[in-house]
Specification:
403 residues, alpha/beta, TIM Barrel, 2 domains, binds 2-phosphoglycolic acid, binds zinc ion
Length: 403
C-alpha cells in the first residue's frame, strides 16, 4: 500500500490563528490531521514555520504549505507501515537540526497523518495500530483537567494551569466528576469575583483576574472535600514565562528560586500536589537541581525543559531532575521521535503525560496516543470548547471500543 497523494491547507486553530491541515491519501483511504500550536513554547522546540508577512499578524502558514508542495512528488509513492523510514525521509528532506527548513508544523502534519493513514488502511482504530506497531500496553491515562488558566493563556494568574486529576482512570466516571467539579467552581468563582470570572482562557479553564493561586487552591480544596476528595491537584507553572533577570516575578513579588521552591512545598503541604510541571525556568537548571536535592512530595514534570526530545528526557531523568515528561508530538516533529521519547521515559522509569497545545485543532490523535502507550496522564484542558471536548469524547469512544 502506497501514498497516492498529499495535500495541505491553511485552517484556523482554536485561537483563530492559521495552522496546517494535512490530508494524506492511499488508493481508497484518507487521513486528516490538523496541527496544534503552543503559546508558552520551550526554546528548544523544533521550529514552527510562519510566514512573517502582513497576513494574520505574520502567523500565516502559506510558506509551510509551499514547502510541502515542493516535496510532494517525493512523498507520493512511499510505502505505508514504514513510519521510521518515512520520518527519516522527512528529516533528510528538511536537512536542519531544528526542522526549520520544512518547518516542524509541516513535518508533524505529514508524520502524524501518515500514522493515521496506516491505521485507516488497516481498518484499525489509531490506538490499536500504534499499540501493535510499537508493542505497547494500552491503558487509560489519568485525566489532567485544567480548570483555571493563567500565564500566557489568560490574563490574571501567574501560574499557567491549575489542574484537577481524578484518582482513577475510569473514563466515563472521571469525566462526569470533572464536569461536576467545574460547575461548582463556576458558581463559586462568580460569587467571589463576579460573573466575568466565568469567562475561559485558551484551554477552556476559568480565567479570574485579581485572584491569587492560594484563593484558587482553597476553592479547589473545599470543592474537592465536598466530592469525597475524588481528585488530586496538579500545577503547570510554565515558570519560564514569569522568569525575568534571574528572578521569578510571582504575584507582584520578586522571588528567587529558593523562595519559589518553598512556596511549592507549602502548596504541596497545604493542598497535596500530585505534580508540578516546569516549576522553574528552562534555563534555571540550578533550581531544578536544588529541588531534586530537597525532599518534595510532588512529581516534577518537564515540558519546556524537555520539549519531547528523547536525549533531553533521558539526560534529565538520569540526573534525577524530573519524575515525568510531557509528550507533545509537535515539539519534536515526528511520530518516530515522539515514540523514542516515550521509550526513553519508560527506560528511565519516569512517567509520561501526553498533552495538547494551547492552540488546538479538533484532531483527536493524542487521545489515541495516550491510551495506546498506557501513559500515566493526559492533559487536554477543561471539558469545554470544541477542540478540547473532542479529545475527551474520543477517550469516551475508545472506552466503548474496547468493551
Ligand atoms: P502551550 O502550553 O501549548 O502554550 O505550550 C501548554 C503547556 O505548557 O503545557
Ligand atoms: Zn507546560
Amino acid at each position: 500500500m502506497k501514498i497516492t497523494d498529499v495535500k495541505a491547507t491553511e485552517i484556523l486553530d482554536s485561537r483563530g490563528e492559521p495552522t496546517i491541515e494535512v490530508a494524506m491519501y492511499s488508493d481508497d483511504m484518507t487521513s486528516v490531521f490538523g496541527v496544534p500550536a503552543g503559546a508558552s513554547t520551550g526554546k528548544k522546540e523544533a521550529h514552527e514555520l510562519r510566514d512573517g508577512t502582513d497576513r494574520y499578524n505574520g502567523k500565516g502558514v502559506q510558506k509551510a504549505i509551499e514547502k510541502l508542495e515542493s516535496i510532494r512528488s517525493k512523498l507520493v509513492g512511499q510505502e505505508l507501515y514504514e513510519q521510521e523510514k518515512f520520518d527519516d525521509l522527512l528529516i533528510s528532506l528538511d536537512g536542519t537540526e531544528d526542522k526549520s527548513s520544512l518547518g516542524a508544523n509541516t513535518i508533524v502534519g505529514l508524520s502524524l497523518s501518515y500514522t493515521l493513514l496506516c491505521a485507516n488502511t488497516k481498518d484499525q482504530p489509531l490506538w490499536r495500530y500504534i499499540a501493535d506497531t510499537y508493542s505497547t500496553s494500552p491503558n487509560f491515562p489519568r485525566l489532567y483537567a485544567n480548570l483555571v488558566n493563567g500565564g500566557k493563556h489568560a490574563p490574571g494568574l501567574d501560574i499557567q494551569e491549575f489542574m484537577i486529576v481524578p484518582k482513577n482512570n475510569n473514563m466515563p466516571e472521571s469525566i462526569e466528576k470533572i464536569s461536576e467539579f467545574r460547575i461548582k467552581l463556576k458558581d463559586e468563582l462568580s460569587k467571589i469575583f463576579g460573573s466575568g470570572a466565568e469567562l475561559v482562557g485558551d484551554e477552556g479553564g476559568f480565567a479570574p483576574t485579581g485572584a491569587t493561586a492560594k484563593q484558587m487552591l482553597d476553592l479547589y480544596k473545599s470543592i474537592n472535600n465536598s466530592m469525597d476528595n475524588y481528585f488530586e491537584f496538579a500545577l503547570d507553572s510554565a515558570a519560564s514565562s514569569f522568569y525575568k533577570d534571574d528572578k521569578y516575578v510571582y504575584e507582584k513579588n520578586e522571588l528567587n528560586a529558593k523562595q519559589l521552591m518553598d512556596l511549592y512545598n507549602r502548596y504541596s503541604n497545604d493542598y497535596g500536589m500530585l505534580s508540578i510541571e516546569d516549576p522553574f525556568a528552562e534555563d534555571d537548571i540550578e533550581a531544578w537541581q536544588a529541588l531534586s536535592d530537597t525532599d518534595h512530595k510532588f512529581l516534577v514534570i518537564g515540558d519546556d525543559l524537555t520539549v519531547t526530545n528523547y536525549r533531553l528526557t533521558a539526560q534529565y531523568a538520569q540526573e534525577k531532575l524530573i519524575d515525568g515528561v510531557i509528550i507533545k508530538p509537535n515539539q519534536i516533529g515526528t511520530m518516530t521521535e515522539t515514540m523514542q521519547t516515550i521509550k526513553a521515559a519508560g527506560e528511565n522509569n519516569i512517567k509520561t503525560i501526553v498533552s495538547h497545545r494551547s492552540g488546538e485543532t479538533t484532531s483527536t490523535f493524542i487521545s489515541d496516543l495516550a491510551y495506546a502507550v498506557g501513559a500515566f496522564g493526559i492533559k487536554i484542558g477543561a471539558p469545554v470548547r470544541g477542540e478540547r471536548v473532542a479529545k475527551y469524547d474520543r477517550l469516551l469512544e475508545i472506552s466503548k471500543e474496547i468493551r
